[in-house]
Design goal:
Length: 268
Amino acid sequence: MTKIPKPVQDYIDIVERGEIETSAEQKLLVAYVKDVFATEKLKYDTTQIEKYLSYQKYFPFQLFEWEIFLFVLFMCIFRTDGTPRWSDLFGYMGRGAGKNGFLSYLCFCATTETNGVAYYDVDICATSEDQAKTSFVEIYDILETPKYNKLFKKHFRWNKTEIQNIKTRSTIKFRTNNAKGKDGLRSGIVVFDEVHAYENWENINVFTTGLGKKPHPRRIYITTNGDVREGPLDELLKKARRILNREVPDNEFLPFLCQLDSDEEVHD
C-alpha cells in the first residue's frame, strides 16, 4: 500500500464528490488509480513534484486539476525498482480541453534537471507539421517572453526547430508523419498529437523504435476524435476501456478518457 500524493488525491476527491461533471470513464479511472496505490508498493518524491509544479509560473496559464493529476501519475510515480509505474499515457478529449497546453508543460518539464535524466529527448509527432509544431511553438514563445528571457538563456538554447536544456542536453523537436530517417531517434518521450489522424501503426512504430535507449522511456498518445475508423485510435480506445473495466492488466498504460456518457447529453 502506498499513500496517494495530494495532487492526485485532490482530483480523485473532485470526481468522487461530484464537484465537476465527469464521465463514467473518469469515475472508473479514479477507482482504478486508488486500487493501484492500495495494492502496490510505489514511490515518489514530494520535492520533485513541488519543483515540477513550480514551473507553472513561467506559463501563461495554470494547470487544471485533471492536468496536475495526470502529470503527477505519469511523470512522478515509480515502482520500487525506479521505473515509471505508467510509461504510456492515452488522453482522449474534446477540442478546447487544454491538451496542447498540457503537452507543452509536460515536454518542458521532461527536459529539466528535475527529471534527472540526461539526454532525455522529447519528440513531438503528428501527421501534419502545423500540428506537430503546436506545443513546440508554445514552449518557444515562453522562452522568448521578455520577463523570463534572461533567466531562460542561462538554462536553454533554442531556435525555430530545436529547444535544448543546457545542463541535461535534453532536446525538444517536432516531427511529421514521414517515417524515413527516423530510425536513429533516441527519444526519452515520444508524443503522438492527434493520433486519430494515423491510419495505421507503421509510422508510430518507427517513431518508437528508439525508445529504451534512455532510462524511463515513455509514450504519449493524445487526441480528439476523428473520422479514421479501425485504426490506432479505435484500438487505443478499446484497450483503454478494457483496462478501466478491469478486463485486462494495464501493463503501464494510463487511460484518460473524457466524453459524454450518452448522445442525449449534448442537449445539456
